[in-house]
Design a protein that fits this description.
By secondary structure, the protein is mainly alpha-helical. The protein has 2 domains: 82 residues, Cytochrome Bc1 Complex, Chain D, domain 2 (Orthogonal Bundle); 90 residues, Cytochrome Bc1 Complex, Chain D, domain 2, CATH 1.10.760.10. The chain has 11 helices and no strands. α9 packs antiparallel against α11. The longest helix is centred in the first third of the chain and has 17 residues. About 9% of the residues have low confidence. GO terms for molecular function: electron transfer activity; heme binding; iron ion binding. It is found in: Periplasm.
């Protein structure tokens, strides 16, 4: 818990300088380059298949970072970055400017709304907003915000309205270490303390958080 709090404090205290330069992706250029992305993420960035993430309205800095790390995952043979059998291959031919343009385009779109089942609202809200001190689980809202919008500055993603199935898969990957591109292992540390039920509830709760 202390490690997570310290990492967040240091991060927010130092990122302002590194983000001083405006994000220089080109929305129109990104739209022209997005045709291949539409196969999985949809033409409007709202993936029609729930195992793929919605990327419409996601922070440009976050999309750019993930594309960089997918490419690094491939070039390093999975030793660095984020390795994915589909996305790492898709990111390989992209130039740095391609990534910025795509990130700018998809971030300019609107993410479609989702819904939260009534039976998970109470437990999901408690875990998301307050965490569980006895188990050392911090509130998700501490990094992702009360409405799940995240923050571009710290590259914490928007997670509200995301497909529950995708959220579930990523939390499980953080928990078992197959995804490890999070800052200082923060998400891995948290996910290791989550039960299967916690993950199911949070995933469904986030689907309609607004």
């Amino acid at each position: 818990m202390k490690k997570i709090a310290l990492s967040l404090t240091i991060l927010l205290g130092t990122l302002s300088a590194s983000n001083a330069t405006a994000f220089d992706g080109d929305v129109n250029a990104g739209k022209e380059k997005s045709a291949t992305c539409a196969a999985c993420h949809g033409p409007d960035g709202n993936a029609p298949v729930n195992i793929y993430p919605k990327i419409a309205g996601q922070h440009a800095d976050y999309i750019y970072k993930q594309l960089q790390e997918f490419k690094l995952g491939m070039t390093s043979g999975g030793k660095e970055g984020r390795m994915d059998p589909v996305m790492s291959g898709m990111a390989m031919p992209l130039s740095d400017q391609d990534m910025k343009d795509l990130a700018a385009y998809f971030s300019s779109l609107n993410m479609s709304e989702g819904a939260t089942p009534k039976d998970v609202v109470e437990v999901g809200q408690q875990l998301y907003k307050a965490g569980d001190a006895e188990r050392g689980i911090p509130a998700c809202a501490a990094c992702h915000g009360p409405r799940g919008n995240g923050t571009s500055l710290a590259k914490f993603p928007k997670i509200s309205f995301q497909h529950p199935e995708y959220i579930k898969s990523q939390l499980e990957k953080f928990r078992d270490g197959t995804r490890n591109n999070d800052l200082n292992g923060m998400m891995q540390d948290i996910a290791k303390k989550l039960t299967d039920k916690d993950i199911e509830v949070l995933s469904k709760y986030l689907g309609g958080l607004h």
